[in-house]
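Here is the promised in-class demo. Please do not try to memorize the tokens; focus on the logic of going from shape to residues.
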């Protein structure tokens, strides 16, 4: 499969309908993904990025049907992660001397992955590559969006920003343009991608977008390296990124919990009931972390103004599912979110205190001291949970008014 993106720019990547996990087992891809590679054929011919390693042979064979590989003048490697650079070894066997344009960090990480001394040409922000026919590529380094080596480039004449991972989504589709796909599915995948991958780099996202906007380049299209191409109103995803990067929150509280025999779940349900009683506007959602996808829960936390996290106590600690998601939360560095912790116990009862300490360390702001209830909550215990939920919701009422993802 290949298709024309615009004028002399073609997509020559791979749609991966089967992918259900990415980054090892770290990121769920319910709708598959795509690895987008682009071929620009002006007086100079340029290939931008490749595909994930398992598709390397297929990619090179398909590329040969599009073009005599010897006609490729430059290869651009915007990012060394294997989903984009994975077919380079296969390709470089065919055209071993071809210049590879990347950042200096790209040289380091490509050498680190492949241990090859390819013909690297490092570029910096503002460097340009003349393609002929009145077109040139302008390079823009984008360190930590999301690796040190990440880079974008802008194609003059066609007004296309090649943004690599930024503005992308893990979303397989035969309709590779944003205006052709289901908008709610598209934005579900966009926000999930942002929440799970780009959250830690939000300040850099804002800076990089501002830097790009200051260049005053017309933005006709954004060609990302995953998912659909933004051809209709590409500014929409840029604005959405600015919103998401700015400590995003909706009027939502997520209660995340794990439970062994239902006592902590009962606490969660009563806390939720209390929240709804004092604030009918707030969107309270409950997630049992053992039965829900962790990346989807992270996306819900991203959308929330606050979370309440609960685990029973086991072996003087917390359940391992809760431990795992707390580690994920720590690493993502969410900003401006509030929290409380709870859990049932039988004898020692450390879990709410452990969760409380970890969320505080993760930068969340405590609303209430932890709540713990011995054994299964009695009528009295349930009333305590209800009151806890009421106090929690009351104290953050009317915060987080953004409610629409689209
Ligand atoms: Fe799509 Fe950072 O790789």
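The designed amino acids, position by position:
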């Amino acid at each position: 499969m290949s298709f024309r993106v615009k004028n002399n720019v073609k997509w020559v990547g791979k749609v991966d309908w089967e992918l259900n996990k990415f980054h090892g087992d770290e990121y769920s891809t319910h709708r598959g993904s795509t690895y987008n590679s682009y071929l620009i054929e002006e007086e100079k011919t340029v290939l931008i990025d490749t595909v994930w390693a398992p598709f390397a042979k297929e990619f090179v064979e398909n590329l040969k049907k599009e073009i005599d590989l010897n006609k490729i003048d430059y290869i651009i490697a915007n990012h060394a992660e294997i989903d984009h650079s994975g077919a380079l070894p296969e390709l470089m066997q065919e055209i071993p001397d071809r210049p590879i344009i990347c950042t200096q960090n790209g040289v380091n990480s490509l050498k680190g992955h492949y241990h090859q001394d390819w013909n690297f040409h490092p570029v910096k922000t503002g460097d340009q590559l003349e393609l002929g026919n009145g077109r040139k590529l302008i390079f823009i380094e984008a360190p930590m969006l999301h690796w040190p080596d990440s880079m974008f480039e802008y194609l003059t004449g066609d007004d296309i920003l090649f943004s690599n991972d930024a503005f992308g989504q893990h979303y397989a589709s035969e309709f590779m343009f944003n205006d052709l796909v289901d908008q709610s599915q598209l934005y579900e995948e966009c926000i999930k991608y942002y929440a799970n991958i780009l959250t830690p780099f939000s300040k850099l996202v804002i800076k990089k977008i501002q830097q790009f906007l200051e260049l005053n380049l017309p933005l006709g299209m954004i060609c990302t390296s995953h998912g659909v191409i933004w051809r209709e109103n590409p500014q929409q995803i840029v604005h959405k990124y600015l919103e998401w990067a700015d400590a995003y929150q909706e009027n939502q509280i997520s209660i995340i919990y794990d439970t062994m025999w239902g006592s902590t779940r009962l606490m969660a349900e009563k806390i939720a009931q209390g929240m709804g009683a004092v604030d009918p506007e707030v969107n309270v959602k409950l997630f049992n972390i053992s039965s829900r996808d962790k990346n989807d829960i992270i996306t819900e936390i991203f959308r929330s103004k606050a979370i309440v996290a609960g685990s029973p106590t086991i072996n003087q600690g917390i359940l391992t599912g809760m431990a795992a998601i707390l580690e994920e939360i720590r690493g993502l560095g969410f900003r401006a979110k509030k929290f409380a912790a709870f859990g049932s116990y039988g004898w020692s009862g450390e879990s709410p205190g452990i969760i409380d300490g970890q969320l505080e360390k993760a930068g969340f702001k405590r609303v209430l001291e932890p709540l713990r209830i011995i054994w299964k909550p009695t009528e009295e215990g349930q009333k305590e949970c209800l009151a806890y939920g009421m106090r929690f919701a009351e104290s953050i009422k009317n915060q987080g008014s953004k409610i629409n993802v689209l």
